[in-house]
Specification:
393 residues, alpha/beta, 3 domains, nine-stranded mixed β-sheet, 16 helices, globular, binds flavin-adenine dinucleotide
């Protein structure tokens, strides 16, 4: 166990486990550490969006994950005035306790070694990084929204951006699609109902912007959502929580600039890969791991430190542009009437419906949606507001 490892990965969530799978399959000696033993719970909405499904397909794991979870073929967004917009798209819901354990099992089957270890420091990051009793040529930090370790490395820790709470509800009511509600009680956040296997639902509310999340009592919003949103009310009428709801912080918007320190590279939510406004983060955490593993494999082959220093630029080029539209959406849709207007248009217009479908599938940049909205008749004074946001002013 004390041999020098090619790569030590700290944190075995979707980012760390994806990196472990790719690197171990490529023949690297990989140590994957987590402070928890698996299976372990992770507070989440448990919905895999199309970006996560594409990474799983590239890893050859999509069929198995789809078999273990529930395949859902649409999402419905509700505006503040309850106007419904249906978006056809493929999702898979799977409890994180099962999904993350499956990824760790896959990494171990590929040759990685799993070690339960709470890492409190990384010594000698510029030469031979040391993680507890282990040394490695490269260390990947994949600790999610927990950035204590980054702080110990002398990196700016920033503050979390979002806050969300979720619970599991068992109910006889059948809801067959992902439900998202821009509920007046929660704006600028939203409430969700995601169907799982076994007659259970992941139900929650979240606020994914720092100033809005500060000082918010999310449990109060959660209760209001359950009591006022019609589908949630129906679900709870004959349903009940199977466990006490739990909350967690999120880091969103890929704002973190300190991504490498010597031979230490940060991936996943530790650099804020989660989308603002929607709080989706599993797919983007996995994608950041894919970017990092390409670079780490090049470094392991060449021993050239310059490879690792290219990582922030690779993230900026490959992932960063996708965040702009979500930042705009967060501003635009947190105003109830704009959400209502957009929903009314989308419900009536197949072309806006197709744009929404493209956004979910990441074939269309969300910025295009706001550009489209700014070309339609709007109430007095609204057009300049929406077009300014679309331009990013
Ligand atoms: C309520 C809620 C709902 C959400 N819903 C969704 C959703 O439906 N879909 C979606 O795509 N995203 C969702 N997200 C976001 C998603 O959960 C995260 O983006 C995702 O988990 C990030 O993956 P990660 O691998 O970077 O970090 P994590 O999954 O957080 O994994 C980090 C791991 O590091 C370990 N760790 C931390 N510190 C140390 C240490 N010092 N030493 C050793 N191990 C350590 C932790 O134990 C953990 O296992 C939600 C988040 C919340 C809070």
């Amino acid at each position: 166990m004390n041999e020098p490892w090619d790569v030590a990965i700290i944190g075995a969530g979707p980012a760390g486990a994806t990196a472990a799978i790719v690197l171990a399959r490529a023949g690297a000696k990989v140590l994957l550490c987590d402070k928890k033993d698996f299976p372990r719970e992770k507070v989440c909405g448990d919905a895999l969006t199309p970006d996560a499904l594409r990474v799983l397909a590239r890893l050859g794991l999509l069929d198995e994950v789809s078999r273990r979870g529930r395949v859902v073929d649409a999402a419905s967004g509700f505006s503040a005035s309850r106007i419904e917009v249906r978006i056809p798209a493929r999702f898979v819901t799977i409890r994180r306790v099962d999904f993350d354990a499956f990824l760790v099992e896959t990494a171990v089957a590929a040759g990685a070694t799993f070690e339960k270890l709470t890492v409190t420091s990384i010594d000698d990051p510029h030469t031979t990084p040391r993680v507890g009793p282990f040394t490695a040529r490269v260390v990947l930090v994949a600790t999610g929204a927990d950035v204590v370790l980054a702080g110990r490395l002398g990196l700016p820790m920033g503050r979390p951006d979002g806050l969300a709470i979720r619970g599991y509800v068992r109910s006889p009511v059948e809801i067959d699609r992902l439900i998202l509600s821009l509920d007046r009680a929660i704006l600028p956040g939203y409430g969700w109902i995601f169907p799982l296997t076994g007659g259970e639902y992941n139900v929650g509310v979240g606020v994914f912007r720092r100033r809005a999340a500060d000082g918010v009592n999310l449990r109060v919003h959660f209760t209001r959502f359950l009591e006022s949103f019609p589908l949630a009310k129906a679900l709870m009428a004959d349903g009940a929580f199977v466990a006490e709801p739990k909350g967690a912080r999120l880091r969103c918007g890929l704002k973190e600039s300190a991504m490498t320190v010597g031979r230490v590279v940060r991936i996943g939510e530790s650099i804020g890969t989660t989308f603002q406004f929607t709080g989706e983060g599993i797919g983007k955490a996995m994608e950041s791991a894919e970017v990092a593993t390409r670079i780490v494999l090049e470094y392991l082959t060449t021993g050239d430190d310059a490879c690792l220093q290219r990582y922030p630029a690779a993230i900026a080029a490959e992932l960063k542009p996708k965040y702009r539209g979500y930042e705009i959406a967060e501003h635009v849709l947190s105003t109830a009437w704009v959400g209502d207007l957009l929903a009314r248009r989308a419900a009536a217009s197949p072309s806006i419906g197709r744009v929404l479908e493209g956004i979910v599938n990441e074939t269309i940049d969300p910025v295009q949606l706001f550009a489209k909205v700014s070309t339609i008749p709007l109430p007095p004074g609204a057009r300049p507001f929406v077009s300014r946001l679309a331009r990013g002013d």
